[in-house]
Amino acid sequence: MNVLTIEHLSKSFGSLSVLKDISLKVSKGEIVAVIGPSGSGKSTLLRCATMLETMDTGSLSYCGEYVCQHDASLNKSVYASQQKLRDLRRMFGLVFQNFNLFPHYTVLKNITDAPICVQKRDKQAVIEEARNLLREIGLADKENAYPYQLSGGQQQRVSIARALINKPEMVFFDEPTSALDPELTNEILKTIRKLASLRITMMIVTHEIEFARNVADRVIFMAGGVIVEEGKPDDVILHPQNPRTQTFLANLKK
Asked: How far is CA 104 from CA 109, 155, 156, 159, in A?
């Protein structure tokens, strides 16, 4: 089953064309890493997939349920109702590069606030799930701490727990280690590897090429707003076929 299906996605900001006819599918339990140079459209792709940006043209669906469909007569993407979009947003979690935790909330409240206050889930059940997640990520003793009392790596682990609290069908990571130093980066990569071992469906936009090679089932290389090359990690990273991919990876080694 495909959790995520994107067909012929295009996105421009004014006269700048950022994404050009992107189509991809992510199946249940698959881990996809998206790599490429700055400005290639990686983060915009993720933002369109998570409804933080609206697509100009193309279709987007989760588990067969359409977020938007392309209307040929209007030549644009037409989105579902607000109620349906609210429901579909629950199908994925999102981990930002800058954590995006509420500074005035404790760790536990950061994780549980949306499920309890917005989704009206049972308070005690959500708190228990959150505590289980904190144990899983090694932060059981931090539930009453505030973000400023945590390291960057700990804050990012809290944001991962927040993304997982609703048991989403898929989790997106937008450069999850870019704001961290090398030691803390390893801490987060270890956490994501643990999620990978559980076969949680993931799309990871990353500049950590070796991590992508070790964790992903499939690597997508983007440049200039298009998917240039995709395939098994070793094929794309060790034996790239496209000259643009070859140049990008060669430059990383200099």
From this structure: 9, 13, 16, 15
Q: Quick check: 209 and 237 in contact, CB under 8 A? A: yes
| Cα separation values, 109 from 55, 99, 143, 147, 234, Å | 33, 15, 8, 11, 41
Locate tokens 């949306």: which residue?
114
List pLDDT tens digits, range 114-163: 899 888 899 999 999 999 999 988 999 999 999 999 998 899 999 999 99
Residues 6+ apart with CB under 8 A from 154: 139, 142
- One-letter amino acid for residue 115 of the chain: P
Tell which residue, 207, 205, 213, 211, has the closest CA to residue 237: 213
SS (H, E, C) the chain: CEEEEEEEEEEEECCEEEEEEEEEEEECCCEEEEECCCCCCHHHHHHHHCCCCCCCEEEEEECCEEEEEEECCCCEEEECCHHHHHHHHCCEEEECCCCCCCCCCCHHHHHHHHHHHHCCCCHHHHHHHHHHHHHHCCCHHHCCCCHHHCCHHHHHHHHHHHHHCCCCCEEEEECCCCCCCHHHHHHHHHHHHHHHHCCCCEEEECCCHHHHHHHCCEEEEEECCEEEEEECHHHHHHCCCCHHHHHHHHHHCC
pLDDT in tens, 156-169: 999 999 999 988 99
Burial status of residue 118 (CB atoms within 10 A of its CB: 0-12, 13-18, 19 or more): exposed
How many other C-beta atoms lie within 10 A of the C-beta of residue 31?
A: 23
Please check whether residue 42 is in contact with residue 33, taking contact to mean a CB–CB distance below 8 angstroms: no
**Residue pair 21/12 in contact by the 8 Å Cβ criterion:** no
